[in-house]
Amino acid sequence: MSSNIPDIDGMAPDFKALTTSEEQFQLRTALKNTHNIMLIFYRGHW
Amino acid sequence: MAEVKKHYDDIIKYKTRAYAISVDSPKQSRAVVSEMMLPFDLLCDVDKKVIQLYDLVNPFEHGGIARPAIFIINPGGKICYRSIDGTARRVDLTHILNFLKIHYDNPDLSNKEPVDKKWIIPSWEATRQII
Q: What pLDDT, on a 0 to 100 scale, did the predictor assign at position B26?
């Protein structure tokens, strides 16, 4: 099965999402703080 | 996420910040942060655009939720570590911490090694939700 999951050595697709305080988070902006970002996808709470 | 919380001081030490993302609303996510006393923020992909962008939609649960996965992205935007996980089989955080330690001294390094994974035993609370 083909997959379009971003791979190692590729650029992480930029995105925007809301934080818990309903502020806008943008990946590209967060990376400007010169640290790595660990992005954890999780199933969520239901 | 509990393991990431437990080792968050080490993660910070290696110049890394964590964000966890799901399709939960900000209100649901606030409850998770509060219950788990997480030291990092949660992101809310309510319209599922991010999980679609990263091709991580699990269409078989709850109308489409995120498939568990972890990416480490360097300040240049390059993915230097990734683990695509399952519901019950997840990356061993020790493997990530070892990578971060090496990466700290070699910032251009990407992980080329197979990712160590381990089975996780769901809590009774999670099991009850599945049942």
A: 96
